[in-house]
TrEMBL record:
Name this protein carries in UniProt: 5-methylthioadenosine/S-adenosylhomocysteine deaminase
Keywords, ordered alphabetically: Hydrolase, Metal-binding, Zinc
Binding-site list for Zn(2+): 60, 62, 209, 297
Gene3D superfamilies named among the record's database cross-references: Metal-dependent hydrolases, Urease, subunit C, domain 1
Similarity comment: family membership: Belongs to the metallo-dependent hydrolases superfamily. MTA/SAH deaminase family.
PANTHER family according to UniProt: AMIDOHYDROLASE-RELATED DOMAIN-CONTAINING PROTEIN (PTHR43794:SF11), AMINOHYDROLASE SSNA-RELATED (PTHR43794)
Keyword match Methyltransferase: no
Binding site for substrate: 89, 182, 212, 297
Organism encoding this protein: Halococcus morrhuae DSM 1307
Signal peptide region: none
Amino acid sequence: MTTLEITGGQVLKPDMTVEHGDVLVDREAGEILAVGDVPAGDETLDATDGLVMPGLVNAHTHLAMALLRGYADDKPLDSWLREDVWPIEGVLEPDDVRAGAALGALESIEAGTTALCDMYFDVPAVVDAVEQAGLRARVGHGVVTVGKDGDEASADFEEGLAVAREQDGAADGRVSTAFMPHSLTTVDGAELDEFVPKARDADVPIHIHANETRDEVTPIVDEHGERPLEYAAFHGLLNETDFIAHGTHLDATEIDLLAEAGAGVVHCPASNMKLASGIAPVQELLDAGATVGLGTDGAASNNDLDVFDELRDAAMVGKLAADDASAVDAAAAVGMATAGSADVLGFDSGRLAEGKKADIAVLDLDSAHLTPQHDLVSHLAYAASGADVRHTICDGDVLMRDREVLTLDAEQVREEAEERAAAAVERANER
């Protein structure tokens, strides 16, 4: 056993208290051995003037959409997708997806994210990037059947199942999978009836966009006479391993349904604000006992993958939604970005505790905007950013040391992404 001792810093404990202490990691098992007063490690990582905390968990994103950052802005979701995003995605090649995913992975490591959930296509290319980066991920093929005939739709669903079966356990076990129909309005109920049982047989969770905009709620209510998540449950979704993205427009019945089923909700406040989709009722979800995590969505609608930004947004808009300054407090926001997101994804991480996965970030506190240190949890929620991260560790491996990413060639990743993004735009314009 080779051990890594993270020394000299303060430690964020699972109960959101902070104390001086060290963290000892079993590098081979990728687990935390001890927190606090620990034996000396074989190797050390300096956390002096820093806060050792769980690595952030981005519970809903589309890594490769980093290629589309700034490509199309200032539009509502439906027209943004149909007029801009889907057309250019139609010309992306697997190597484009790999380059975009590598760029997103680089950005994530730099901002202290150690685990994520990615929904996209050309999933093997995404997995390649995740494996090289050293991150933990739950991945899936986003199934969209709008405009496809029966055979094409079935083929897309079959691909989603094949990806879930074939990629599970990749990257030395750091990659898990899910079955990912895109949304309740982009796949048909009959198709869900056919393929959800197959996903259950494959023993993989199901992840889907739901209630993101009013335009995703009204058609289901008008056509079926029930709320979208009631419709989803009727078609076999929403068990305790499943999770939805957004949940912006939920009513009380749906909140209770999520809490009772144990299904997770991934709040994506920045994307929801930028697309004017609405504000999710996060405090109501928390009060009901629902499991809530945080996601950035894609960099095309955010426009970054900094989960620190996301948790600050979550705290801010949560107060507006509840009309209560005490709603979605600092500890709740930090909890959603760490333990909450890990629980949604089924990862044994998000907490600095013995036996948990050694997915860790070290935040540098030696800066003006994090001074004075009255309350470090408050700083995490309201003042810190990804640029403050000094070290990033996943599965016991150091991915970034002193702001230098060790697993990816940052300059090469950025250059390739720039070139492939420009070429993709040119191909899309020629159509």
